[in-house]
Design brief:
single chain, alpha+beta, five-stranded antiparallel beta sheet, 3 helices
Length: 228
C-alpha cells in the first residue's frame, strides 16, 4: 500500500508528542513575575508541578495468584496494519509491601504473532519479535496483506518469585488493502490530475494539489480519520 499512510500516522503521533512536550515544558517552568502553574510564581510559595495523566487503556486484563495481582492493558485493541500497540502492566499490585511491582516482579509478554520474525539488528539480534519482558513494552502487528482481519491473543505473565499470574488481551488487526480499497485511497499529484493507470489502487480518488512538492512523484494517502 501507500507510504503516505505511514506519514499521516506519524504526523498524528508527532503532533501528540509535541503537545505533550510543550505541556511538560510549561508546567516545569516557573519564577519571574508571571503565571502560577508549577515552579515558583513571582517569588511566592512553590506549587507542585502538574503531571499529565496517562491516556486510558483501550483494553485490559487482570489475574491474581497469591498476593500478586496482575493488571495489564493495551493502548489500543484494534486498527489497520501496521498496527503499533503499547502494553502496560505497571498497575499490578502485591499484598507484600516489600515487593515493589515495578522493580521486583518479572513480566513476560507473548504477542501471539509468530510471523513477526526475529530482530536483525539492535541489542537483540536473532531474538524473536514475538516476545518481550518488562512492565512496559510494545509490538507492531503487521499480518500478511490479503489475509483480511486477524485477531492476535497477547499473553502476559507476572512472576513474584513464587506465584505466577497470567492473563490475555485480544488485538484485532485489519488488512489495509481491504480498509483502504477503492475511493478510500486518494492519489495526488502536483502537476495534474493523475490518470487512473498511474495509481495502483483501482478506483482510487484522483486529485491535483499544487501544495504538494512538484517532484514528479505521485503521492497516495488515505483519510487521516481512518488512522485514529
Amino acid at each position: 500500500m501507500w507510504t503516505g499512510k505511514t506519514v499521516i500516522a506519524k504526523g498524528v503521533f508527532w503532533g501528540a508528542s509535541v503537545a505533550l512536550m510543550i505541556g511538560l515544558g510549561l508546567t516545569a517552568c516557573g519564577g519571574g513575575g508571571g503565571g502560577t502553574t508549577g515552579g515558583v510564581s513571582g517569588g511566592g510559595t512553590p506549587t507542585a508541578p502538574v503531571v499529565p495523566t496517562a491516556p486510558p487503556l483501550a483494553s485490559s486484563c487482570t489475574a491474581t495468584a497469591g498476593g500478586l495481582t496482575l493488571s495489564a492493558g493495551a493502548s489500543r485493541d484494534s486498527g489497520v496494519a501496521p498496527l503499533a500497540v503499547f502494553f502496560d502492566a505497571t498497575a499490578s499490585t502485591h499484598s507484600d509491601g516489600l515487593i515493589k511491582p515495578f522493580h521486583d516482579i518479572e513480566y513476560r509478554w507473548s504477542f501471539g504473532d509468530p510471523g513477526s520474525g526475529n530482530w536483525a539488528t539492535g541489542s537483540r539480534p536473532g531474538n524473536s519479535r514475538n516476545s518481550a519482558t518488562g512492565p512496559v513494552t510494545a509490538h507492531v502487528f503487521e499480518p500478511a496483506l490479503g489475509a483480511g482481519t486477524q485477531t492476535f491473543t497477547v499473553t502476559v505473565a507476572a512472576f513474584d518469585g513464587t506465584n505466577t499470574a497470567t492473563c490475555q488481551i485480544q488485538i484485532t488487526v485489519d488488512d489495509p488493502n481491504v480498509v483502504f480499497a477503492g475511493a478510500a485511497t486518494t492519489c495526488v499529484s502536483a502537476t495534474g490530475v493523475p490518470l487512473p493507470g498511474d495509481c495502483p489502487v483501482a478506483g482510487a480518488a484522483l486529485v491535483q494539489q499544487a501544495d504538494f512538492p512538484d517532484n514528479n512523484q505521485l503521492i497516495g494517502f488515505c483519510p487521516a480519520a481512518e488512522h485514529l
